[in-house]
Design brief:
By secondary structure, this protein is mainly alpha-helical. The chain is 61% helix and 0% strand. The chain is built from eleven helices and no strands. The two termini are 17 Å apart. The model has no long low-confidence stretch (mean pLDDT 95). This is DNA-3-methyladenine glycosylase. One of its GO terms (molecular function) is metal ion binding. Keywords: Metal-binding, Zinc.
Amino acid sequence: MSGYCRVAPGHPVHQPYHDREYGFPVEDEAVLFERLSLEIFQAGLSWEIVLKKRAALNRAFASFSVDRVAAFDASDLERLLHDAAIIRNRRKIEAVIANAAQVQALRATSGGFSQWLAALHPLPHEAWLSQFRETFRFMGAEVVREFLLSTGYLPGAHAEDCPAYAAIVAAAPPWLATPRTRA
């Protein structure tokens, strides 16, 4: 069983995310944007910290409404930097705001975030990383990998003997429609 599949069961913070979200296919723009943003906030921190701060991050970032976050200005940046309930890293906050504008731009160039991802799928990890770095800010290899795992674009979020695995397969994630490749 994968490491997360061993840690999450029975854990009050990890289990709900593990059982109902991690690895399931996502098309909703706000959910995709939230997941990308949460992965950015996780860089250098534990996933448990991010999950514990998730509700506060959703409040602070207008439920990850792309249009609302893209409209954030200098006063919003200052508000966020002083919000003790969230992860207050200037580079990460600035990246999330800039990335909201990039998601808006994807609407015009690709039909939206979900359509952009679908058009790129499947790619080897290095090619995914290159595309994300060309499009978004604060894109490290693990940020991209975990985003793709969490949204169903890469296999491996769950071990095949994990109960969540069967539910994900039934939801027909993008990775299932293509030959398996190692991330």
